[in-house]
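Before a computer can learn anything about folding, someone has to put a protein's shape into writing. The outcome of that step, for a single protein, is printed below:
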Amino acid sequence: MPTDWPSLHGSHFATTRALVTGGAGFIGSHLCEALLGLGARVVILDDLSGSDRSNIDALEANAGGRLQFKEGSILDSQLVQRCAAGCDVVFHHAALASVPRSVAEPRLFHDVNCTGTLNVLEGARHSGVRRVVFAASSSAYGDSEELPKVETMAPLPKSPYAANKLAGEALMRAYAGSFGLDTASLRYFNIFGPRQNANSAYAAVIAAFAKALLADTAPVIFGDGQQSRDFTFVENAVHANLLAARKKDPIEGEVFNIACGQRVSVNDLASLMAEMLDRPHLEARHEPARAGDVLHSLADLSRARAVLGYEPIVPFRQGLESTVHWYRGALDKQR
């Protein structure tokens, strides 16, 4: 069942005007859907390079004029500032988001993810925005063997993408300290759910597994499959964004892990998804590990609980069942 956002967030967003960069993308579109359901007015800025206009078509049709879509890039600083004008909060989700692609195209990733983030902060600062909530990444932790990951650990980025996201966190903290623009960084741990693109060469693992299994093909695991992830259903990420946006006290650039606080091996994920999709006979095949990938991730949620009041609202298995059900319908339509 869809999350009942009003039961969790009441009328906190009824008078809010929000800019969501990357709002036509996977996580961004779910966030826009929740904001609109809570009565907010929403501006989406998205260049559609890694997203799908259809993600927001239904939202736009039912928003009663409370949703504006602007097609464009966060590299266009003047456009960013125009979109931020009159907004109370900016949710910054626009980014290039693939670890392996960042290894292949590091300069492009730096331009979009670092310079683009600077443009978002400048647009927010000059528009009088109250708070910017940034989609950060657990990839910042790198391969430290210590588990669970705690925000006070020294970051050890292994890929250009991870370094970009870490730079974004630093910019968030710097703007809070230098300009009085309040900011928060949410370190996402392997977000998954409906609308995640399964057709990219760089598709996230759950999306890639769903596509392979539904095509009656063995899923591919890079490495031995013992690597583990704190897989987190997308509505948990949305909930964290809403909590960060509505907090009354200043957050001042703090970083928060956003996850479920449990880990699942990639081997176990493949077996579970094969079972859910009625393809238990399809055993994963293994290929060499990819550069930049980390071995294990598991979040400590203590800081998010204490400061934001965050708790996961959808457990892993429930979220996976919803996701698999969505892919079954969505990929069938593409055939």
Q: What stands out?
A: The mean pLDDT is 95.
